[in-house]
Amino acid sequence: MADRVHSSPKRGRLLTRHGTGLALLGLLTLALVLLGPLFLDRFTQNVLTRSMIYAMMAITVDLLWGYTGILTFGQSAFFGAGAYATALILTHVGGGAQNFALALVLSVILPMALAALVGWLSFYHKSTPLYASVISLVVPIVLSQAIFAGGSFTGSSSGLVGYPVMKLGAANYFRLAGVALILFAGLAWIIVRSDAGRVLIAIRDNPLRAAYLGIRTQRVQIILMTVLGGVAGLCGFLYANAGRIVAPEIAGFGFGTQMIVWTALGGRASIFGPALGAIGIDYLGAQLSGSMPYVWQLIIGVLFVVMILFMPRGLAGLLPRRQRTAAAPTLATLPDRPQESSKDALLSVTGLRKAYGNFVVLDGIELEVRPGELISVVGPNGAGKTTFLRCLSDGTETIQGTITLAGQNIAGRPPEDVVALGIGRKFQVASVFESMTVAECLRLARATHERPTLWNRASGIHLPSAALDILALTGLDKKLAEPVSGLSHGMRQSLELAMVVAMLPRLILLDEPTAGLTKAERTLIGEVLKRLTQELGYAAILIEHDLDFVKEISQRIVVLHQGRLVMDGPVEEVVNSELVRSIYSGMAHD
Amino acid sequence: MTDDRLVIEALTSGYGETDILQGATLTLRRGEILALMGRNGMGKTTLLKTVMGLIPTRGGRVSLDGVPINGKPPAWLLAQGVGYAPQELPLFQDLSIRDNLRLALRGDRDLATALKIVERNFPFLLERLDQLAGTLSGGEQKMLILSRALMTEPDILLIDEISEGIQPSVVQRIETALKAEREQRGVSILVVEQNLGFALGVADRWAVMKLGQIVDEGACDAASRETVLKHLSI
Amino acid sequence: MKQMKSMRFGLLLASALATTPAFAQGDATPITIGVPVGLSGANSVVAPAVVQATELAVDQINAAGGILGRPVKIAVADDASGAAGAQTAYNTLVFQDDVDVVITMETSAARNAGIPIVEEGEKPFIYSSFYEGRSCSPNMFVNGWVPEQQVPPVVEKLLADGAKNFFLIGSDYAFGRGMLEFSRKYIEEKGGKIVGEEYLPMDGSDWTAILSNLRSAGADAVITSTAGGTPNVTLTKQLRASGISIPYANLAVDEGTAKAMGADAAGILISASYLTAIDTPENKDFMAALQKKFGAEMRTPNDLSTPQYEAVYLYKAAVEKAGSTKTEDVLAALPQVSFKGPRGEVSMSKQHHAPLTMYLGEVQADGSVKVVADFPNVDPGEQCPDL
Amino acid sequence: MALLLDIATTAALLFIVSAGLFVIFGVLKIINFAHAAWLTIGAYTTVVATKMGLSPWLSLPLAVLVGGLLGAVTEIAIVRPLYRRSLDAILATWGLGVVIVQVITLTFGRDMQMPPALITGTVDVLGLPYSSYRLFLLVAAVIMALAFVLVLERTRLGLNAQAVIMNETLARALGINTSRVRLVTFMLGSAIAALAGVLLTPLSSVDPTMGISWLIGAFMLVMVSGTSVTALALACLCFGAAQVLVSTWISPILGSVTVAVLCAVMLRLHPKGFARG
């Protein structure tokens, strides 16, 4: 099953022309940061040191919220945990190189552990983004309460002060914060543009499709939150050393929301926007808020509401969005490896019953599917066809009866696990990633086979020949670098089908793949399906209304009517049966 | 004044990127029952929804007694005497029959008067007003849906697959009710149907829809069953 | 960065030059006093009074010829009543405005955030707020009270009135806990008994469970030490509404809040180093001068703003004694000088802290505070033995 | 006995504070982060009313009026464009809350205001003196809950709101003006929140940020209750009891985070909370 690619495809060079420009910009900034203390006064150095630490926090919020769609108010908690871990060690254990090392390690590990816990709480199958947001509110509140209750150990409301810090001096803290910011921003910039970065955006844009591509969305979210918790903790370590104080407010929800403001105003999903937003607002605030704090906060509040309403992309949205001119990746063919045509059932469904309360959707369904079979499911509206496909592909649906796929009972397995067993599902309404290009969508479909790299983009995509056929026949192979949002309905349907095929599933579930397609497109999809099943030994279950189409491509037809499987047999037999005629002309009744 | 009441011309609409209706043209005349048939996914329900203003029109026009009604909200159409019995999730399952009926009353109409109309066709509903709609059997639910549409005494009635999944005796009652409404009040009725027997039994004319367009229409007579079946069949 | 400075809208309040006499001809560059204070956030209620007190002192000093013949001016910056805001405010004052001294009343978190910056910038710092004690820095002097000074008067009074079983209620923060910890030790030392000690988070406003515990604990006196403002008011309101009528000492209420609470505050015992009702010529002059300068805008002086007023004078005395504004000289002179102000004679002579005269007051039905007793020269105890 | 009264009145208080948020979340499916600001606005209505010499009781209807009007403006200007961007709706309403707090501060100052209480003193409950105002709150909460049920079940508005909650498409198909239902719901939620603000004044001080401390508890309670009034009442009772018990027997500090933490864990383990189905 695992088609590990032996000859690794050519990796795209990281630094394209536009990348080179940015690298130069990065070097320039680096020089500015290193030389800054020579011409900046102490005030500016001190304020900017903190602003730059804040900017890193804003980038973590951007990665979570802007790129992955997790609106979090709780990054402050991890920042606070890191800062307090540092201050507590240095206060109660003392200074010395060893203790600084210990503080550094703990300031990363503790927030990561906390973040992992928060991640576990926030992300589970069918958890909602709203729920994750609310949890992210609770975390800083509980943490700051704990700090308050810590008495003289944590310094309570007064915070901790007077502990030994790394004696670097203001100028070097400025340089350290600057270098850290540039490194982190650069790293974040590379990652969000890498293949792995596409996974984050996939989760933000269409978590369901991502899960049905086998991407373990919750796991990715938890890992991301954990890693960024560690980064936040590291920022806390820097802060505790540079600022020489920790206070409960840095772990609080107010600070967490401030980061959202920086990110929103600077421009979510742009890395540099939030960083500049944080520096700009914190630095301007230092200049302005001293004398008119309420007016300053009022201005920020109004600006924030206006931005959310009218400029969701923030100030970064004012810049013209550069059309991604990445060269189209090359497509490579995976060797066809016909599935062994075993006599054993690939899928077997026994006694399936699905009800919502008193409303029974499916009842008493028995079905076996063998490799190489293409089964069409027909039946009038409301017969339960789509529900049937959902039950086959999501083991967490509450059902009665058993569904086994490749010998494994799928009960309790979320879609990504069922996908791992060899199911590919194509939705009724084409489900693709709107903000991506055709090539990016295809590469995501291969994510479970070729682990997406964090550092760059693969320049080639390995696809099975059937997927390539679909692309070639529809002309999608000429549009690899084009954004999905510009594709026609038929093209999207074909793209989704190609994505599903690219996953090399053993059983493909298709929900009305031809709805709204032209005659030519239908024929094309029919050809592909025939080839997949008859030549390559895939199995497929197809929901279809167009009986002419069904007749052309199926070997077997299953008729669902009012939640029951009323017929299962060879095409000719079923099509010509009185039962089907009567169901379709409305004469059949229980 | 012509007898054309609801005129649909080259209507296009759909969801997302997809045009489900692709230039459908159809006319509902005064006092007639017109059966619109076609297989699943061909755009029949979308046609009704578009006319009712539940889906925005993308092209073509709809007019009521010569007045264009494109883009009018459902509330406006209901006020003009257009009644609608939807197919998908047509009832508030967790509300009582009474509340389900009340929700369809607009403005100054009171429930008592409306219930008299319900009583004419389906008196059993009046005895069970406090029962939750979700606890009714499939056929009873259909009768409730129809009662709700008839209750406001519409001049034009759009009905979506009312016969779906119910037993013949209930189909018969519905047929009787629709015919009675037409006889007594001269209502024009458009029924979207997959049940050939019911459709041809109740209607004066039929039309067949395929891939978002009306492909054939005719008067209901002895020959129409074969003609329509040919369009629908396999 | 000169440009930055001129762009800043910082509140640089030049002193009222109209009334200024001719300053000595030598060095006429102004001495700048930095006042980082909570214009926003929790302290914003009391901050205006603190700023007024500073302005009054500076006006008076300038009218009398300044310090060492140099005029005095104030730079105020908002610390947002917290650590992050204080960092900004102190950075601005110390490094951008290059003030000669920082004199202010702030939250403990803000003070702690400021100390490293004051030390880094090598400025003298007078903290004019009462606080929970034991904050030490070579650069910092304190002229407000600490628990060792505030608690004994109320506890002595309650014990004298026959109370044996004490219940302590506080907000969960450094001051609340610090005050009640000392109270507990002190009461037990004096033979009283603690029957309960409960804390609610600073932003908590529902005291129901604590009050029920208080009721069932069989206490015959209650001592509270909440955060100022909201928690204090909610606690008092809910305590009164629940019908609890045992003697009630409040370590955190100021006169203004007591007055605003009206009848609910009646009978509350308070202990302070300053009360408006102090009957001395210095206090009367102080009140009159405030009234004259600010008129209807005048904020009632309190136990936080009056020490601020005196702190400016203590700084003046130290500079004059040292003969310069150089930090090391001023820091050496500060413990040796004293000033007789509204609170009486104050000198920060004890480990950077000040022995003070403490007053026991009782809130009257009309919200005014009557001075019941005074305790002269109460020692702050061992605050910073290393200094 | 005191414990039971504490639990009942705490639950009542939680219910009163969450009710406005609940109405908005139940129908509109958005979390109104400006909720704390509505509470504050209600309390300041009392301040203004009593300063004008009106009885504090009059501030109850006044707050409903002010809350309703501001709610209408908010719905039209800020919330309406964001129904399809629910996370952005959170942010926009939160920003609005910040703006309102600053405007109140600039208008009234940071100082605490202390309007006269509605009811003072205690009454004896089975020999135990108990705060009359807390008992009054209990009555107020019960009245509020009954009014909810009555409005939902007996009035056309309530029926329309239920229809929108259950099946918005059908509601529209039946000619219900769903955007008006949303508007009225938001107004109602804001009005109830402002009313709750008035009811809070005798227990707390009135200052610009007074609402914040009630916010998180209210969020969590509404999250676990979904769209059912009964569920909300039940949640307030359960978590109110937990809060009182933890506060009384363990620590009031733990008690203060009890509601939030228990709700969060409950939602993790049983995502539907107290809502049925």
From TrEMBL, chain A:
One of its GO terms (cellular component) is plasma membrane. PROSITE patterns: ABC_TRANSPORTER_2. It holds the Pfam family BPD_transp_2. Signal peptide: none annotated. Keywords: ATP-binding, Cell membrane, Membrane, Nucleotide-binding, Transmembrane, Transmembrane helix, Transport. It is a multi-pass membrane protein. One of its GO terms (molecular function) is ATP binding. InterPro entries: AAA+_ATPase, ABC_AA/LPS_Transport, ABC_transp_permease, ABC_transporter-like_ATP-bd, LivM-like, P-loop_NTPase. SMART domains: AAA. It is found in: Cell membrane. PANTHER family: ABC TRANSPORTER ATP-BINDING PROTEIN (PTHR45772:SF2), CONSERVED COMPONENT OF ABC TRANSPORTER FOR NATURAL AMINO ACIDS-RELATED (PTHR45772). This is Branched-chain amino acid transport system permease protein. It comes from Paracoccus sulfuroxidans.
From TrEMBL, chain B:
The keyword Hydrolase does not apply. SMART domains: AAA. GO terms for biological process: L-amino acid transport. The keyword Heme does not apply. Residues 6-234 form the ABC transporter domain. SUPFAM superfamilies: P-loop containing nucleoside triphosphate hydrolases. GO terms for molecular function: ATP binding; ATP hydrolysis activity; branched-chain amino acid transmembrane transporter activity. InterPro entries: AAA+_ATPase, ABC_transporter-like_ATP-bd, ABC_transporter-like_CS, BCAA_Transport_ATP-bd_LivF, P-loop_NTPase. Keywords: Amino-acid transport, ATP-binding, Nucleotide-binding, Transport. It comes from the Bacteria. It holds the Pfam family ABC_tran. PANTHER family: ABC TRANSPORTER ATP-BINDING PROTEIN, HIGH-AFFINITY BRANCHED-CHAIN AMINO ACID TRANSPORT ATP-BINDING PROTEIN LIVF. Belongs to the ABC transporter superfamily. This is Branched-chain amino acid transport system ATP-binding protein. It comes from Paracoccus sulfuroxidans.
From TrEMBL, chain C:
Residues 1-24 form the signal peptide. Keywords: Signal. Belongs to the leucine-binding protein family. It comes from Paracoccus sulfuroxidans. Pfam families: Peripla_BP_6. SUPFAM superfamilies: Periplasmic binding protein-like I. Residues 30-367 form the Leucine-binding protein domain. This is Amino acid/amide ABC transporter substrate-binding protein, HAAT family (TC 3.A.1.4.-). It comes from the Bacteria.
From TrEMBL, chain D:
Pfam families: BPD_transp_2. InterPro entries: ABC_transp_permease, BCAA_transport_permease. Signal peptide: none annotated. It comes from the Bacteria. GO terms for cellular component: plasma membrane. The chain crosses the membrane at residues 12-38, 58-78, 90-108, 133-152, 181-200, 212-237, 244-267. It is found in: Cell membrane. Keywords: Amino-acid transport, Cell membrane, Membrane, Transmembrane, Transmembrane helix, Transport. The keyword Signal does not apply. One of its GO terms (biological process) is amino acid transport. It is a multi-pass membrane protein. GO terms for molecular function: transmembrane transporter activity. Belongs to the binding-protein-dependent transport system permease family. LivHM subfamily. This is Branched-chain amino acid transport system permease protein. It comes from Paracoccus sulfuroxidans.
